[in-house]
Write a structure and sequence with these properties.
By secondary structure, the protein is an alpha/beta fold. Helices cover about 55% and strands about 10% of the residues. It contains eight helices and five strands; from the N terminus they run αβαβααβββαααα. A five-stranded mixed beta sheet has the order 1-2-3-4-5, with helices on both faces. α3 crosses α4 and α6 packs across α8. The longest helix has 23 residues. It is globular and about 45 Å long. The mean pLDDT is about 95.
Length: about 180
């Protein structure tokens, strides 16, 4: 839920309605995060065990500005537990924070992932894994690792500054094959 959705008032209302009616975990990214920033009351409506994938600025917009990576991590642990959600905090070392306070720090990926659309690819990978029946906690951790490795493969082929989102997509299959 999110990539390309837009942030109009009717979109915010649609997300509110979806959360209240659907009540099943979902994957929340991009414009859905921006809609939640517009109406912070939506945080308490997010279905338990949903995955939310903010980068640092989106995270600060949702949960309050943080002055350091350490304070952001502590806040993420607290918010994951409070809202019973999985937070994929995107950054140089993307972290998956679970509501049971477990934190996974990803070892794959690098500067090539800092390209427009890369986060949408990550959301798609997590969604694809979820569609195969994996638990969302596992989908988030596996998705982040696969996404990072696909970025590493694309970086090797094209160089950090030349990678576009579709290059990451093109390398998902080879990464899964190699894993």
């Amino acid at each position: 839920l999110g990539p390309g959705l837009g942030v109009q008032d009717r979109t915010v209302l649609a997300i509110d309605s979806l959360f209240k009616r659907y009540k099943r975990p979902c994957i929340i990214d991009a414009d859905a995060i921006n809609c939640i920033k517009i109406n912070p009351m939506l945080l308490s409506c997010i279905p338990p065990m949903s995955v939310i994938t903010p980068h640092q600025n989106e995270f600060d917009g949702l949960f309050g500005e943080q002055t350091s990576d350490e304070s952001r991590l502590c806040k993420a642990i607290s918010m994951a537990k409070r809202y019973k959600i999985i937070i994929v905090l995107k950054g140089r070392y993307t972290m998956v924070i679970r509501p049971d306070e477990k934190v996974y720090i990803n070892s794959s990926g690098g500067p090539a992932l800092a390209t427009p659309g890369s986060g949408d690819v990550l959301t798609g990978i997590i969604g694809g894994l979820a569609a195969q029946g994996y638990e969302l906690e596992l989908c988030a951790a596996m998705g982040v690792f696969i996404h990072g490795m696909a970025g590493d493969y694309a970086d090797k082929a094209y160089g950090s500054y030349s990678v576009i989102a579709s290059d990451i997509v093109d390398n998902v299959g080879p990464v899964i094959r190699d894993i």
